[in-house]
Design a protein that fits this description.
The complex is a heterodimer.
Chain A: E1 27-31, H1 36-41, E2 50-55, H2 59-78, H3 81-97, H4 99-110, H5 114-133, H6 138-142, E3 144-145, E4 152-160, E5 163-167, H7 175-185, E6 190-194, H8 201-211, E7 220-223, H9 227-236, E8 242-244, H10 256-264, E9 269-271, H11 292-295, E10 298-306
Parallel strand pairs in A: 5-6, 5-8, 6-7, 8-9
Antiparallel strand pairs in A: 1-2, 3-4, 4-10
Helix pairs in contact in A: 2-9, 3-5, 4-5, 4-8, 5-7, 9-10
Chain B: H1 3-11, H2 18-26, H3 33-43, H4 50-62, E1 64-67, H5 75-86, E2 100-104, H6 108-115, E3 121-126, H7 136-148, E4 153-157, H8 160-164, H9 168-182, E5 186-190, H10 199-211, E6 216-218, H11 230-247, E7 252-254, H12 262-276, E8 288-290, H13 293-306
Parallel strand pairs in B: 1-2, 1-8, 2-3, 3-4, 4-5, 5-6, 6-7
Classes of the chains: A alpha/beta, B alpha/beta.
């Protein structure tokens, strides 16, 4: 019997609930991370293993993604918190049923062993559920009644910022990705996510999970490609309300200070990358998070309501 | 020369009858549907960049008939639209103004008052828009009202029922009669191509409208889908080109409805240039009937000027809240 021909994959982007090719028609090759001894030696005695072709997103893909995210935002924010929580929990269910594929993606992308990949996928699904649970709780924790010297009820409540551009972490391709995307969308924001440049496959599988769950199209848009090429367009885009620069750490040719400067043009909210000073360091995503990633993309609405008899 | 006199000349008949018109219109060459769509699709693939794109955006803005044709149009809404026509982009005074604003006849006075002496025309839809189902005296009264209110242009609808029934003479007479009461106002004839079924019918309706004295042929009311598609506009552009070859007179073309993005608008401009010719690349001879297209063109213009993609927050909102 003859050997079976490989089914080589060319993945596409995820924009507005659809999987379009890059407007530019480009794609790039994704290789497996070196494993075990080879990774420790840092040598390249063997050629890297080809994994798949990923779409190489362009600035116009980013623009289209922002349009899709903008369109989806009012509806997503208007869904009840309870409903958003259910929808996000459903994503975790789909991730669980795709566990084997996610484990393989993490093994290939991060060059880790089976046991560690299993642990990473479990942590990622748990992280997603953890954030999903906050959907109908963060308003109580972060908002409240303000004491004022007058006959008013004065109530502050957090609301979604709008469209958030997210630079996903370069190294932690699944747990890190989930840890930056989930807190953005749980509060009613929509996201344009630029994946890890060298490790996009877990994000592509996550896109397939999102597409087959109940998340409305456009709530999460996933763009694979060169971080340094696409990021400046997202940072300067005047219809983007906030940007998370976490993935600037370890990305080739990305100057996050410049991105923060471009983002200032329309007063975007900016979440700086981890690390101190000008150095960007990818945080450790295995630790249990706090609410800072959620609160970074909220606006506070304060209502004065007259107190009558 | 009166339209009917010229029509008799062109048709070579001593009396204009429905059978003379029928045999003349049905003698026009048929449209190759596949070829026409293929040609339109190939023209739509042209890549227009940098300075050409900037020129195309400004030209397209200057060709817009900024339109509001809703039952819920209030004077405030029309004033908002007219104000937007006067200052399309408050952040950039060099932005060109649209050619006209297009409203129902009873809103002409409101629009005129807001526009003042600015060089922006007011177009009014008339003749029982959008269905055209009314008697001729009603249609003429509708038109006279709009002209008396100061409309510079009249957008009339043809009687599609009569056209599809083969009663070309009725359609001809209605257009000619409406033209006669237009005075100095230019007459745009809406074919409503979405209801004409075939490209052959579009071609016949185009020739019939020009024969009857229309100054413009317009694709659609915007109330029927499909509206202004590129192949239909291509057929109409061929008709005005051939009409000029035949008679020496230029007639304008106005696609209306469904053109929402800058990319679409630029495709139409490419088609105008390739099919009719450069003389039509002027807002005296080519218009876009659109409401949301202006916003997208302004976004693209801002993107070229600032280097950053823009968003709806940076576009003036022309519709006042009705709460």
């Amino acid at each position: 019997m003859s050997a079976r021909v490989d089914v080589r994959k060319t993945y596409k982007l995820y924009i507005g609930g659809k999987f379009p090719r890059s407007e530019s028609g480009r794609s790039y090759e994704v290789y497996a991370a070196p494993t075990g001894a080879a990774a420790r030696r840092g040598s390249s005695s063997r050629p890297p293993t080809f994994l798949a072709n990923a779409a190489q997103g362009s600035r116009k893909d980013a623009r289209d993604a922002v349009v899709a995210a903008r369109k989806a935002q009012p509806g997503w924010a208007a869904a009840t918190a309870y409903n958003r929580g259910q929808v996000l929990y459903r994503v975790a269910e789909v991730m669980e049923s795709r566990r084997a594929q996610l484990v393989q993606d993490v093994r290939n992308s991060e060059g880790v062993g089976a046991a560690q990949a299993e642990a990473t996928v479990s942590a990622a699904i748990d992280r997603w559920v953890w954030y999903a649970g906050w959907s109908d709780k963060f308003t109580q924790v972060l908002g409240g009644l303000n004491p004022v010297a007058g006959p008013f009820f004065d109530i502050s409540a957090p609301e979604a910022t709008g469209v958030v551009a997210v630079l996903a972490p370069q190294a932690s391709s699944l747990l890190g990705l989930v840890s930056v995307v989930a807190p953005v969308i749980v509060s009613g924001n929509t996201a344009v996510v630029l994946t890890s440049e060298e490790r996009p496959l877990p994000a592509i599988t996550l896109a397939e999970c999102l597409a087959t769950s109940d998340v409305p199209g456009g709530v999460v848009n996933i763009i694979t490609g060169r971080t340094a090429e696409v990021t400046p367009w997202l940072a300067s885009h005047r219809d983007v309300n906030a940007i998370d620069l976490t993935g600037a750490a370890g990305a080739d040719g990305v100057d996050w200070g410049g991105l923060e400067l471009a983002a200032a043009d329309n007063l975007k909210r900016v979440r700086r990358p981890g690390g101190t000073g000008t150095e960007a360091v990818e945080p450790d995503f295995t630790a249990t998070p706090d609410l800072s990633r959620l609160t970074a993309f909220l606006e506070t609405k304060t209502v004065w309501h007259p107190k009558g008899r | 020369m009166a339209p009917s006199e010229r029509a008799r000349d062109l048709l070579g008949v001593s009396r204009l009858t429905n059978s003379a018109l029928s045999s003349w219109l049905h003698g026009l060459p048929g449209v190759d549907q596949v070829g026409c769509e293929e040609r339109a699709a190939s023209l739509a693939t042209r890549s227009i960049k940098t300075t050409s794109k900037a020129w195309a955006i400004d030209t397209a803005i200057s060709m817009i008939d900024l339109t509001t044709l809703e039952g819920a149009d209030t004077p405030g809404r029309v004033r908002g639209l007219a104000t937007k026509a006067l200052v399309p982009d408050p952040s950039d005074p060099s932005t060109p103004r649209p050619a006209a604003i297009c409203v129902y006849g009873d809103m002409v006075a409101v629009a005129k008052e807001t526009l003042g002496s600015a060089d922006i025309k007011v177009a009014a839809v008339a003749t029982a828009f959008p269905s055209g189902r009314a008697s001729l005296p009603v249609k003429l009264a509708d038109t006279k009202d709009a002209v008396a209110a100061g409309a510079d242009e009249i957008d009339m609808v043809i009687d599609r029922g009569a056209f599809l029934a083969g009663d070309y003479l009725t359609v001809f007479r209605q257009i000619a009669d409406v033209k006669a009461v237009c005075g100095d106002a230019r007459l745009k004839v809406i074919l409503e191509t979405g209801e004409l079924v075939t490209y052959d019918n579009v071609r016949r309706a185009s020739w019939l409208s020009m024969l009857a004295g229309g100054d413009f042929i317009k694709t659609s009311t915007g109330k029927v889908s499909p509206a202004a598609t590129l192949p239909v506009t291509l057929v109409m552009l061929e008709a005005v080109r051939d009409w000029r070859d035949t008679t020496g007179d230029m007639v304008g073309v106005k696609p209306a409805g469904g053109i929402r993005t800058s990319k679409d608008a630029i495709r139409f401009l490419v088609t105008v240039n390739e099919v009719a010719g450069e003389e039509w690349l002027d807002n005296h001879w080519f218009r876009f009937g659109a409401s949301s297209l202006l916003n997208d063109l302004l976004l693209q213009r801002q993107r070229l000027r600032t280097g950053a993609y823009s968003g709806a927050d940076y576009i003036a909102d022309d519709s006042p809240s009705l709460y």
